[in-house]
Structure formats: structure tokens, C-alpha cells
Amino acid sequence: MNSTDTSNELTTPPAPSLSKVEQAKAELCGLDLEPRLAELAAAGWDNLDEATLTIRLKWLGIFFRPVTPGRFMVRLRLPNGVIRSEQLEVLADAVDRCGEHGSADITTRQNLQLRGLLLEDMPPLLAAMERVGLTSRQSGHDNPRNITGNPLAGLDPEELIDTRPLVDAIQTRLLADGGPRNLPRKFNVAVGGAPDSFLLHNDLAFLPAPHPQDPAASLGFTVMVGGFFSAQRNELAVPLGLWLRPDQLPAFTLALLRHYDAHGNRVQRNKSRLMYLIDGLGLEAYRAAVVAGYRKLAGESAPAPLPHDGRHLVVRAPRDGLGLQAQKQAGFHWAGLHVPMGRLDAEQMLELARLARDYGSGELRFTEAQNVLIVNVPTDRLGALQAEPLLERFRLEPGALQAEAVSCTGSRYCSFALIPTKRTAQAVIDELERRLELPQAVRTHWTGCPNACGQPYMGQIGLMGAKARQDGQMVEAAKIFLDGSMGQEPRLAALHEKGVPLSELSDVLEALLVERFGARRRTTLV
User: Which of 455, 375, 366 is nearest to 79 (CA)?
Assistant: First the structure.
């Protein structure tokens, strides 16, 4: 054979190329922009390179919105949805400075997003947030998102475990030196603390469970992995087969994220969520690899995770938490206020802060249903609180459809959304409650596009923005999904209608509510 002929030699195939997003992240981590933020703002947002503008700034919690060029969003980190009055006042001031452009949204991760900000607002805002103990660090893109927990933690008469210190400890570990700075994709973590802590839509969820060998011992957590919603695939988390003590959660979370960082798909972004990695390795091999990483991180002398069958104490769908309800502390209540579609303006934020300070302990909680709780209200102050004007807007007892209506931000701020979800949802719900009486609350989830930020698959009725043909024209429409359950036997909602024009949506939903949810048509419209 000619020495230069290599046609029959074995060759190593070239390594797959990183996606465009991964290349941008590899060149510069967004966290490294923080010292330069004032310089970038002075140069002007329209002079930033595309990767910095649309990717890297999200590591600081700053989001460019193409539909509102020049106006940015800031997403906070509020572990367990807890915020204090003085913190909310700082955020209200930032929103107020934006004038007609300013607003804030409570998110489905017990979090808050501020809208309408200029890039030059960011350095003073981040500094003001830091002074009151707030951060927006790593709240977007390929990072571990806000960590959720029982919104009633520490107050709940039905509480199994107080999730607040656990959620705080996990966040502290993840944001410390050695925490993840560049995951293959976004990652959701949650800790359950009550019998209604449905969390299976998270990549990593810890659900309270008895000790597998000694049921009389203190409660710990079974580990659930791989839940997510996307335009390509939707999955509920599955049991990993492990049980952890509460103090093991921070190190275990970090170990699992380090494994995901090292082995997740960085070539195909539509196959980069955790469940794809689990599928590729197989559950047993994945579990063994994560446990090995945890033992290395925690030290061989630390107790190992215990085998577990995945059974847990979460047995029903989440409560809405609305109304005046007795805390486990005698003589105190929380007031659960319904915030229509989770949207706040600066004046309402300031009023909430005042009410929490004047009537409670100065603390508020945000819920995954995009509502707010004022906590630690003495019994003798309930009457005065009920008389406050803000409660005419943020009602203690909203209608059966209003109470648990959840919505993404929609086309007003998101370039992916196909419909204005918040405005549409509010108008449709108002009309349906005018027409119908319902025997119990019906949970609706509204999302503007297949990315499913509004979690339509979790709704008893889910609605997704779409297009449909009406009278020969393409119009705004909604797909309808039915029968999602967050109860003891969870299931994802299934597609029922492919595209109902928005002009027909109230009529179609009215018929569904009568036929399947026991609604009765009012003899006199309200």
C-alpha cells in the first residue's frame, strides 16, 4: 500500500460543533459583565453586540425585549416567594420611574419581573436591590431559576416541613463560588412542604416523604427528576429512587447540576433539558453517576442518599390560599389576595407594602398562581384590613374562574406569543363569570405560544395562543387543552381543540364549563 493512501485507515469523526448560543456563552460568561454594566449602559443598548444584548445580560437578570426596544425587563430571585415591605418599595420606585411603560408581573415561580426599565437604570437599581438583600443574579437563560417552595411555609396548619430555610440554603449554595455558571439549558428546582405541593413540572423536585427504613424518624424527601414543558416535549418528573435528609438537599442539588453541566446536550438546544440526558443514560446509570458526584462533593464520610420507592406525602392539588385563613400561630391569619393575571403597577406595589407593614409583620408571599399573601395579621386587625380600598381590586374572594387563572405575559412583551394572553384571559373570564355560576373553582392556564410558559398542561383547562382561519382570514386563536391534574394521580392536559378564534372563545368555553364542570347558566346576567 502506498504510504500516503489513508483511504482504509480508521479515523475519528469530528466532534459535534457547539450551537450558536453555546459558542457565545463559551466566549464570555454574562456574570463577568457586572463590573462593566455602567459602561455598557453609557454606550447605549443599540450599540451592544447581539450575544451580549440577547444572551449574556440575562446572567444579571436583565432581559432585552424585542417588542419594546430600548425598554428592558429585570427578573428577581425571590426564594420561596418571600419578600419584605421595604424590598417591595425599592422595586415599586423603579417601576414608578418608568412612567406609563412600568409594570411588574408575579410569575409562576413565585417571582417578580419588572418591566419598562432603561439600560441606564440597571446599575443604580441593582445597587439599591443589593442594599435591601435582593438579587437578580442568574434568573434567566441557562441557569437554575428561582427556587420555589410552599408559599405558606411557617404559617401553614397543614405544613409537613418548613421549606424556607431549605430553599434559602439551596440558593446560597448554587450562587456561591463553585456554583453553576453555564448550564446546557434552564433548570427548575422546587421543594415541597405540604400535602398539596405539586412540583412535578420541575427538573428537580424534592417531595416530603417518610424515612424508608424508620417511618417514625424525621421526614426527609424523595427525589423527582426530569419534569419540563416545551414546544417539543412535555414531561412530569419521575422518581430518581433516592431519599435525602433535609440537610443533604443543597449539596445534592449542586452535585446534580454539576453532572448536568458536564454531560448535558450542548449541540441540540431542543434536546438539552435534563430528561433527555436521563433518557440517554438510562435512569439507573444516571442515578449512579449523580450519587457518585454527590459522595465526592459531600465527602465519603457523609451519609449517602438512601434507596427509595418514590412514594411521598403530596396527595392533592394546591390550595389557592386566598381569603382570610388562620395560621398555625394562634391569633394570626394570612390574607390571600387575588391579583388579576398577576400584574401590578407601582401604586399597587406600594399599597401592598404598606398593608403588609400596617396590618402584618411586613412580609408578603407570592404564589405560583400569581397571587399575593399578607401574613401574620392579628385577628383584631382583620376587619380594618378588609376595609382597605386595594381589596376592592385585589379581592379576598374572587370568582371561581378568577381565583386560579394563570397567564404568561403574552404578545405585549413577548415576541414569541401569538396572542395578548393577559388581556384576552381577563376579558374571557369576566364574560364567563357574568354568564355562569360554577360549583367550584376551575383552574385555567393561559400561554401565548408552544413554549408553554403559562403551563397550559397543568390546567383543568389550558389555553395556548394559535392562529385559525375564520371567514377566509387568519385570526388570533387558542388551542384548548383539558383535564390536567395536580392531584394524587397527576396527568398532563390533553389537546381538545386545535384552534378556536378568540372571538368565539367565550362561547366555546361556556359550553365546556356547562358540559364538563357542572356550570349553570345564569337566568339573569350579572
Answer: 366
